[in-house]
Amino acid sequence: RPGQSVIRDAPDADSRPRRPDDTVTTMDVVRLGIGPLTPAEVVAVARDGVRVEVTDECLEAVGATRRHVEALAAAERPVYGVSTGFGALATKHIPVERRAQLQLSLIRSHAAGSGPEVEREVVRALMLLRLSTLCTARTGVRPIVVQTYAAALNAGITPIVREYGSLGCSGDLAPLAHCALALLGEGEVRDASGEIRPAGEALAAAGIDPLTLAEKEGLALINGTDGMLGMLVLACHDFGRLLTASDVVAAMSVEALLGTDHVLAPDLVGMRPQPGQQAAAANMRLALADSPIVASHRDDPHCPIVQDAYSLRCAPQVAGAGRDTLDHARRIAGHELAAAIDNPVVTPDGRVESNGNFHGAPVGYVLDFLAIAAADLASISERRTDRMLDVKRSNGLPPFLADDPGVDSGHMILQYTQAGIVAELKRLAAPASVDSIPSSAMQEDHVSLGWHAGRKLRRSLDGLARVLACEALSAARSIDLRGLGSAPATASVVAALREFVAGPGPDRFLSPEIEATVEFVKSGRLVAAAERVTGPLA
C-alpha cells in the first residue's frame, strides 16, 4: 500500500495462520499516507497504542490541496465551510476577518456531548480514522493540522467524548468536535496514564502547541463517519473471535448432551453452499475429533435419541449465518476505510464541492445487522445451556448439574443470567438505522443514527461473550459429570478452564467464576486452548 503502513513482525511473532481480521500486535508503527488503513491497524492503534507516522509524501499532498482552499478563500464567490456559515446557516456570508473565529466557534458549539464517557479505544479509533481522512489530501487542511493530530494520538492524549451528540449524519459531529477542541487546548482529556486533565495542560506536557484554525479546518475536523466506523472495525474483530469461540463451546455442548457429530459431515453441510455454515461445521468437526463421549453412543442401536434438538443440530447454520453477516460487514468497513469523507470536499482538480458522503447509512445498516446476528447466536447458546440443566432433556445429567439437588441449586441461576442477557440482546437487536430525527432547522432532515447502532452493538457483543461463557461453564461441568472423557480439543479447553474454575461440587459463589470465564472467552484463550490440538480454526 503506497505511503501507508509498514508492519514489522516481532522476533517471537506467532506465525500460524490467522482467522480473518484477527490481530497479533506485532506492528511497531502505522504509517499514514494516501492509502486506506487496514482493520488490523485500526485495532492496533486503538487498543494497543501503536504509534502513527505521517509520510512526507502525505504532507506534501496535503499542502498542495491547501493552496486550492486558500485561493478560494481570497475569492469573492462564497464557498460552503470556507466563507459561509454551517448547516441551516449556510446562506450567511462570513467576512475575511471573521473566518478564523468561524472555525473556532464551530468546534466550541459542536462539542456539545452529554452522558457517560465513551471508551478510550473508541475515541482512539475515531481519532485515527479522522487523521487518516485528513491524510487523503481531500479535506483542505494545512499540514500542521495533520501533524498536531498525529502528535496528540501518539502522546496518548484521549479527549473526553460523551455518549450522546451524534446523529450519524454530517459526521459524528459532537464526538469529533470534542476531539478537535482538545487540539485547540480546550476541554478535558485523559493523558497517557488515564488521568483527567485540562487539554491545554496535557498538550503542554507532551510538548505539543495548540492549533489555531484557518479557513475550513474546523469543518474538516468534524465531518465524517469516524466514530461509527471505528466501532464497526472493533466489533468485526471481536465478533470474529466470538464466532470461533461459539463453535468450540457448541462442540462441548454436543458432548455434554450426548449429541451426534453426524450432522456435521461435509457432504451434508455441503448440500447447502453457504460458506459460513461450512466453516462453522468444520470447526466443530475438528473440536469433536476422536471424542470418546460422542463415540460411546454413535452406533448404539438402543440409544433412544433419534435426532438432536435444533440448538445442537443447527449450531453451524446459526453461527454460519453470523459469519456470512460478518463477511458483509467487513466488506462495508473496507470500503469506508478507503473513503475520503468531508463536506465540502476538495477534488483532485481543485474544486471544492458539497456532497452527501458523510451520511452513515452504509455503516449503520451493518452495525444493526451484526447486532441481530449476535442476539441470535446468544439465543441458541442459552437454549443449549438450558437443555443441560433440565433433567428431562439432558440425557442423564443431574438436575441443574447440582452436586446434591435440593440442597444445591447448581447452575440454575446461571441460566437466569443468560436469559436476562439474551432478553437484553433481543431489545438491542432492534435497528437504530430505521429511525431518523430531523435537525438543523430541517436542513439535515434525514439522519442515519449509525453512532447509536455502534453503541448498542458494543453492548451486544459484551452480552454475547457472557452468554457463551455461561454455556462453557455448564458444558465443562456436564462433561466432567459424564466421566466418559472428551475429545482432545475440548479436553484442552476444560483443562484450561479448570486452572481458575474448580470442577463439579457443592454450591459456591458463582459470579466470580462467570466473570473469569467471560475474560477467558473474550481474550481468545478458550479458542487458543482448542487450537493447541486442532491447529488454526476458522
Summarize the model shown.
This protein is mainly alpha-helical and 538 residues long. It is built from 20 helices and nine strands. A hairpin with a 5-residue loop joins strand 8 and strand 9.
What coarse outline follows from CA principal-axis ratios?
elongated
What is the total tally of β strands? 9
Order of helices and strands: EHEHHEHHEEHEEHHHHHHHHEEHHHHHH
> Order of strands across the widest beta sheet?
4-6-7
Cα end-to-end separation: 26 Å
What labels would you give this structure?
single chain, 538 residues, mainly alpha, 3-stranded antiparallel beta sheet, two-stranded parallel sheet, 20 helices, 5% strand
Descriptive account of the structure:
With 538 residues, the chain is mainly alpha-helical. Helices cover 53% and strands 5% of the residues. It has a 3-stranded antiparallel sheet. It has a two-stranded parallel sheet with strand order 1-2. Strands 3-5 form a two-stranded antiparallel ribbon. A hairpin with a 5-residue loop joins strand 6 and strand 7. Helix 18 runs antiparallel to helix 20.
SSE order and pairing:
Elements: E1 29-32, H1 39-48, E2 51-54, H2 56-74, H3 99-110, E3 114-117, H4 120-134, H5 143-154, E4 158-159, E5 162-164, H6 173-183, E6 188-190, E7 196-198, H7 199-205, H8 217-220, H9 226-256, H10 266-269, H11 275-288, H12 292-298, H13 310-313, H14 315-337, E8 345-346, E9 352-353, H15 361-389, H16 412-428, H17 450-482, H18 488-497, H19 511-522, H20 525-534
Parallel strand pairs: 1-2
Antiparallel strand pairs: 3-5, 4-6, 6-7, 8-9
Helix pairs in contact: 1-4, 1-9, 3-6, 4-5, 4-9, 9-11, 9-14, 9-15, 9-17, 11-14, 14-15, 15-16, 15-17, 16-17, 17-19, 18-20
